[in-house]
Batch of 3 targets.
Target 1
Amino acid sequence: MILVSSCLAGLEVRYNGTHCLDEKIHELIEKKQAITVCPELLGGLSTPREPAEIIGGNGGDVLDGQAKVVNQSGKDVTEQFVKGAYVTLKRAQELNATVVILKENSPSCGSSMIYNGEFKGEKIIGEGVTAALLKRNGIKVVSEKNLAEFLDGKM
Ligand code: SF4
């Protein structure tokens, strides 16, 4: 079984109530090869919510207590992001998922790039909190950007 970001499956769970449907991921759901997960909702946040970014590092640093996640008003939402990461990990382990497909650029789900913490739309190399925790636990994280490569067996 594969876990996938809910928003990539077309569910309107993003901070602004939208989705970012990826047809290939939707196909995996239809074929019952994948199950959706949204770490931010699992962490106790709701939709809509303010956008959030990681300040002072990346997802691994957040897990280590060296960086935090704040929303656009400056409220610290680190606890919810960390909780969402651990609940997602538990789901992945219960399902024996060895691969998780997560939405790139998100402070939870990003696996190669995240926003830089200044709320200016600028990205930096890094990973979100959930992606970092899953990787630390030996789970392969793929994004929608390298999905074709993954499905072709090239990664
Ligand atoms: Fe939820 Fe991840 Fe999609 Fe954000 S990127 S809406 S946390 S599934």
Target 2
Amino acid sequence: MKQIKQRLHRYFPETTVWGYEGFYPGPIIEVQRNKPVVVKWINSLPDKHLLPVDHTVHGCMNTPEVRTVVHLHGGNVPAVSDGHPEAWFTRKYGETGPAFSTSVYYYPNNQRAATLWYHDHAIGITRLNVYAGLAGIYYIRDKHERSLNLPKGKHEIPLIIQDRSFNKDGSLFYPSKPEPPVADVYPSIVPEFFGNTILVNGKVWPYLSVEPRKYRFRILNGSNSRFYRLRFSTGQPFYQIGTDGGLLERPVEVNTITLAPAERADVIVDFSRYAGEKILLLNDAPTPFPDGDPVDPDTTGQIMQFRVGYPYFVHDNSRIPDRLCRIEWLSESSAIKVRDQELIESVDEYGRPILLLNNKRWDDPIDDTTLFQSVEIWRFINLTVDTHPIHLHLVQFQILDRQPFDVEHYKSTGEVVFTGPKVKPDLNERGWKDTVRANPGEVTRIIARFGDYTGIYPWHCHILEHEDHEMMRPYEVNFKL
Ligand code: C2O
Ligand code: CU
Ligand code: CU
């Protein structure tokens, strides 16, 4: 991890960012299923942070400003290599956090082919480290996926979508206090961050020249707080073939794709009927999601452009298969426990809004110990007014359903009274997931098998401003309860 200068737009001066291996976003790490890799993560960053650090939030009180620890999001990884938020280290490992044990991480890659990503996870400054640039794509590939004849090589491209704001000199802008300020803290964390500029793969509103043929895009929402609801200006569909944890059973044809922070969509897009056209990828997700301010159609309502060429040399023999793979559906009856997890809004000791899980803080004792290799159902009971993307480390899960309930009744009695029927997940959510949108006023149920490792792992909201401000809890996988 290094501080570097990169040109983020043709007409911008160079911007100072943080990158892996000298690049923002980091290089694509591409691995084969069941072939483990070892990565030594080295912090060569300066001692001073690029962005305003709030020393009142957890993990930041008497610790160095620049701390890093890398998490492989979506990875089935032993706890020592998971990137626990307190396993941080500073430049040259000068100082290390209480959970640090090694800088050499072991990734077994014993999971289905999938689009994972790696990003920083240092406690209390994850939002700043990721915003500075510490994120990258990690592909797991396997034989089955290769047999499908999907678009590959230069026709398979990751699209990492992020929002940023800039100062006049081209440097990154990140707020140092909420607007209007709510507390006498400076710098202060903000309840969420929405940038006014969209970047894809580290470029401001880029275009991509494409051939009139099929492409495979691995779309990642790598933003701090912003959700995206994507569609094409042509109205053409996406053929979604995969979710966070790998392939769907069958491709799903959709005209819009909603992605919360950390969610991924693996899609095939067919440009063959659009030779010579310019196509925009558009966004209309409100901020915050789902009932916040509308996007500005001229700025954050646009993501990027595709310039479709002419079909001189195009020989597209890739396919959109009818069937992609088989998914083993976890049955509700196999669950040995149902856990209720409340998403609650409260205020912190400085009077700032704070979002909590079960009204607990990161440092409170562990409440959730799961039995190694056992199946559980978790119910996310969202008492807040926004959608929170809830992410569990270690496991890939399945979404069972979402169901509206009476929030006021729950707040006074603690009893769930449903006000409508269960709604099955969207067709393009019916696969392996590691991050799920828990909507306001709904109970969202997921089912997972906890393993393949024991130890302590975080689960949290992936709105990074929430995660850094206590919307994160540890859970444990153990051989006994
Ligand atoms: Cu992508 Cu715990 O994070
Ligand atoms: Cu993760
Ligand atoms: Cu949240």
Target 3
Amino acid sequence: MTRLERLGAGLAEPLLVTSGVNVRYLTGLSSSNVALLVEPGGATMLYTDFRYLEKAAAVEGVTIERTMRDVIGALATLLSGRRVGFEPAHVTFAGYERLAGGGIELVPTGGLVEALRSVKEPSEIAAIRRAAAFSDEMYAALAQEKFTGRTERELAWWIEQAFHDVGADGVAFGSIVASGTNGASPHAEPSDLVIAPGTLVTIDAGCRVDGYCSDCTRTFATGELPTELAEAYALCLEGELAGLAAVRPGVSGRDADAVSRVAIDAAGLGERYGHGLGHGVGLEVHEAPTLRPESEDVLEVGNIVTVEPGIYLPGVGGVRIEDLVLVTADGGESLTHFTKELTTVG
Ligand code: ZN
Ligand code: ZN
């Protein structure tokens, strides 16, 4: 069955797909102005404007309807009087008002394509494996670089260049380089801060291959560490290894998350690990399923998720260690392999 047929098989009523990433997943078409109407059973109308007609013609299993530039405006007329599901996370309030104003009965029907996307097909796993291998190559080269005396921003640019050099299509997201006290912020922006000796530097980076992302974090030492940071690193690694060991089909995102917290909580640093254990990765760097305390997701074979505990000490520094893991029948297979032993750089 094609992806469209699999989606159609689970539909009770037509679904209007307006998320560009979901359209890409279902049809292979990348467009900034496109929508699909998928009928129960999978018959699909594809709506787009002149600029994408040629690419759309290559999509199999859809009927193409050319619209003017305003696809939502056209749909308000074309679907008037019908009852259709829509993706509530991917329609703006203005778009909703226009569709409803066209006399369409709109039924919120979120997460269906995201659920399909969360279980990867062999070709998707292959793309993410390649992206993860490029991450390994990037980290191996990075570990040979001099960190101290360079700014976080310089290192972030070096990482982007390195991903291009090893053959990736581009970066999956803006690389995080967080040194010294900046490391206490999980999503610090690379700054003009010059990296100092004797501290930790968190590097969270990923690349793209055929549209699919990698996501991997390593934290490096720039020389002898204060005890507090050395202990935080060891604890974070212990939590990460426990999280990795917990990944298997049937485990809930909540339980895997909880396992990663045991050692960190016992050391009294639970409050300093304030985010979830991980997230799914695919066409987007953050997608289903989620691994965090409030997650209701249950892992299944074919999910690809991150395992990434962190410890953030305000005014001191921070550490995060992140691997990308494929859920297999026997557990989890890490797709990222660069060493997690504390690595000291120059
Ligand atoms: Zn990351
Ligand atoms: Zn991540």
